[in-house]
Amino acid sequence: MYDAVVVGGGIVGSSVGYHLARAGVETLLVDRCDPGRATTAGAGIVSPGTSSRTADDDWFAFGTAAGDYYSELVDRLEADGVDDTSYAEVGLIAAAIDDDELGPYEEATARIEARRDELPDIEEIDPAAATDRVPALAEPQRAFHVPDAARVNGETFARALREAGRTHGLETTERDVTSIRTEGGRESRLPDGRDARVTGVETADGSRIEADRVVVAGGAWSPAFGDDLGVEIPVEPKRGQIVHLDLPDAETGSWPVLKGFRHHYIVPWPDGRLVAGATRETGSGFDPRVTAAGLEEVLGEALRVAPGLADATVIEHRVGLRPVSADGVPILGAVPGVEGAHLATGHGATGLTLGPYSGKVVADRITDQKSVPDAVSVARFADGSR
Question: Residues in domain FAD dependent oxidoreductase (predicted)?
Fold first, then answer.
């Protein structure tokens, strides 16, 4: 018998598990390690101030809190004995190379100017200064610099959360949860008048794991549990393909993240490693394949922005099935009418930016009954319960 079971071991589920265990909640994290999990593929840019959602007050407040929380969380993980979180503040350069990018560039800078009091350190820089910082970069027509932007490897950070969680008693297992078990229901109320409550989960081998609380953090696969909870979980997969590169003899560890204005990016890592991405493919379903068209798109865009990468070695391809909610915003918190059921999903392309903080928010809701911000609350889809 556990106090809580977390279904899903990506960065969001791992964060929920860590924060619950740290609060003294006896927690089991169950993960079946699906091919195409978004966390495993994520290149990892933490820069909420440059999001296209910056104009949305609610999203900006949540995104800023999430970005700010990283440094505090990293300190905690290191205090728990974790040696490598992969997180580093390296800055970001957003560069408009071609004429068609100047309009989106102006829109981005206008959003930043509207938040100037909250984003005081973002500044436009001389194109030559941009290429000085990143020798592989094509000289842009215009560029701005975000000094506090960071990079993070999603897989490494999720592993760090689980490792630190184990020091607080978190248990983990690789199994396939097939259903969430409840008692009561809308046709058979519990004695105290509530609709239903969670009693645990069942796995593919027929085992039952008893728990008072269950957190669904299954990424794009989360909707599979909607029928069990009598609620719609409006999340669909969006495929993103990325490419890992090795640039011989390049000091890439000090390079900032690069972003153009066609929704692609290049994330540098030490020792000549870089990650270029990503496609945004709707209608691909749960198909975690690398495709010829996807590689062409990613590599073509990387070389357009940074032609100095032409001699880089292609060392790996990855695919992530991003869990995109119906309104593009995470779905967090308690499921109405089912005591003990919680959701932590729907982050889309912002999983690595928002995920660790989202996990804390859901854990705080469970342990301290703290409210979840309306902008990300499950309650906004309450009319979809069934």
Answer: 3-365
